[in-house]
């Protein structure tokens, strides 16, 4: 039975039996406070739960209690073509155990779909608040309740952690499996991947803005012979957990992890901030870094100049527009949008992409699955 059709008590029982198998020496294994948040999105599903068990080494009468999170791959149609939670697990485990990057400790990964209906990983639960995407943190929510000084600190700390990720020695961490197997460069591999994502996600449609973006990316590609760095893949404040003082407590969502130029990540960070302001017609909240300030801040933390940032921001807009086309088709498929909905062609990402590369933007009112409420 699909996870979405299961009663929480059934999920609890399956997880409890599975956890007992992972801890063969433990007794009194129990799961409590299981919660499947409604806002899990169109990507991985999330299950929050508390696990309690007794180990032979525990003092008499005492038990170990942990707050855990299971990330479950989608069971059916989803935003991405494929999900590799084993890859995510290996990256998160290496970073948590051997670097200062604040990544939740990955505990187990399960490839057998018979347990919960799809592969999943289990990690420690981090504490903190996450800037919201829906409604965007730029128009509503706790980020707007902060002082301008704390909003600035939030941005600075997120870019500092981004620089820390890029400093990680991915070879020493045993992450060589991220090197493209066919001998191509990391960017060639990513470009080929995103062309395939577009061909798959468009489902026979022709998105002239996205196709103009791919042409622009190939015609304007900079020369870059630097050693690639670890790319988190979804570098934005909305994938970070913040403490009250705006320290980054956790870096989340590693499903797009790869190798590449550091500016690939910086371009994504900048584009997503632009998307949540200019893209939806909202002002940049006071205190949050402007584009120029963000670039300078990243350069300060990384200790090196940022190169070809404009190019990599276009690359970010192209990838987000590709995902939005897929999301539009998916929402039509599952009945959340009517068949003639314009979102897949005309959305904040495609509007920004058209502007950045100087082509005619989609006409009409842009549509998105995030709101300004």
Can you tag this structure with a few keywords?
373 residues, alpha+beta, Phosphorylase Kinase, domain 1, Aminoglycoside 3'-phosphotransferase, Chain: A, domain 2, five-stranded antiparallel sheet, two-stranded antiparallel ribbon, 14% strand
Poorly predicted runs are none
Q: What value does the average pLDDT take?
A: 93
What is the CATH level 1 assignment of the largest domain? Alpha Beta
Total domain units: 2
Strand order of the largest sheet: 1-2-3-5-4
Helicity range: 25-40%
What's the Cα radius of gyration?
Answer: 21 Å
Tally of strands: 9
Structural class: alpha+beta
Looking at the overall shape, the CATH architecture of the largest domain is Alpha-Beta Complex
State the major sheet.
5 strands, antiparallel
Percentage of residues in strands: 5-15%
CATH superfamily of the largest domain: Aminoglycoside phosphotransferase (APH), C-terminal lobe
Overall morphology: globular
Oligomer: single chain
Distance between the termini: 35 Å
- Helices, by number, come to 10
Query: What sequence of helices (H) and strands (E) makes up the elements?
Result: HEEEHEEHHHHEEEEHHHH
Q: What name does the CATH topology of the largest domain carry?
A: Aminoglycoside 3'-phosphotransferase, Chain: A, domain 2
Structural write-up:
There is one protein chain. With 373 residues, the protein is an alpha+beta fold. The chain folds into two domains: 3-124, 2-Layer Sandwich (Phosphorylase Kinase, domain 1), CATH 3.30.200; 142-357, Alpha-Beta Complex (Aminoglycoside 3'-phosphotransferase, Chain: A, domain 2). The protein has ten helices and nine strands. The protein has helices at residues 8-22, 85-98, 142-145, 148-167, 186-201, 208-219, 262-275, 291-302, 309-333, 348-357, and strands spanning 27-35, 45-54, 64-72, 106-110, 120-124, 229-231, 240-242, 248-251, 258-260. A five-stranded antiparallel sheet has the order 1-2-3-5-4, sandwiched between helices. It has a two-stranded antiparallel ribbon with strand order 6-9. It has a two-stranded antiparallel sheet with strand order 7-8. α9 (309-333) packs antiparallel against α10. The two termini are 35 Å apart.
């Amino acid at each position: 039975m699909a996870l979405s059709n299961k009663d929480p008590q059934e999920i609890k029982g399956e997880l409890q039996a599975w956890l007992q198998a992972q801890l063969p020496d433990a007794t009194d294994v129990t799961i409590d406070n299981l919660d499947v948040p409604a806002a899990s999105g169109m990507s991985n599903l999330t299950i929050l739960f508390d696990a309690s068990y007794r180990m032979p080494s525990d003092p008499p009468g005492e038990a170990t209690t942990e707050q855990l999170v299971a990330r479950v791959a989608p069971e059916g149609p989803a935003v991405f073509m494929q999900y590799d939670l084993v890859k995510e697990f290996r990256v998160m485990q290496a970073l948590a155990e051997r670097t200062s990057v604040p990544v939740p400790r990955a505990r187990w990964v399960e490839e057998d779909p018979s347990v919960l209906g799809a592969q999943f990983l289990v990690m420690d639960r981090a504490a903190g608040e996450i800037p919201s995407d829906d409604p965007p943190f730029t128009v509503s929510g706790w980020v707007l309740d902060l002082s301008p000084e704390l909003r600035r600190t939030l941005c600075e700390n997120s870019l500092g952690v981004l620089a820390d990720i890029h400093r990680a020695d991915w070879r020493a961490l045993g992450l060589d499996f991220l090197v493209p197997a066919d001998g191509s460069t990391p960017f060639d591999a990513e470009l080929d991947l995103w062309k395939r994502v577009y061909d798959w996600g468009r489902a026979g449609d022709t998105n002239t803005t996205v196709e103009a973006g791919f042409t622009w990316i190939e015609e304007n590609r900079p020369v870059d012979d630097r050693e690639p760095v670890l790319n988190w893949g979804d570098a934005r404040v909305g994938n970070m957990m913040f403490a009250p003082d705006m320290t980054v407590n956790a870096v989340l969502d590693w499903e797009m992890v790869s190798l590449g130029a550091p500016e690939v990540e910086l371009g994504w960070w900048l584009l997503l901030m632009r998307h949540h302001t200019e893209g939806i017609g909202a002002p940049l909240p006071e205190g949050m870094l402007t584009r120029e300030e963000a670039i300078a801040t990243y350069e300060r933390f990384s200790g090196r100049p940022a190169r070809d940032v404009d190019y990599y921001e276009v690359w970010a807009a192209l990838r987000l527009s590709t995902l939005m086309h897929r999301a539009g088709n998916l929402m039509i498929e599952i009945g959340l949008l009517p068949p003639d909905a314009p979102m897949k062609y005309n959305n904040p990402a495609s509007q920004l992409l058209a502007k950045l590369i100087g082509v005619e933007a989609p006409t009409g009112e842009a549509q998105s699955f995030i709101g300004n409420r």
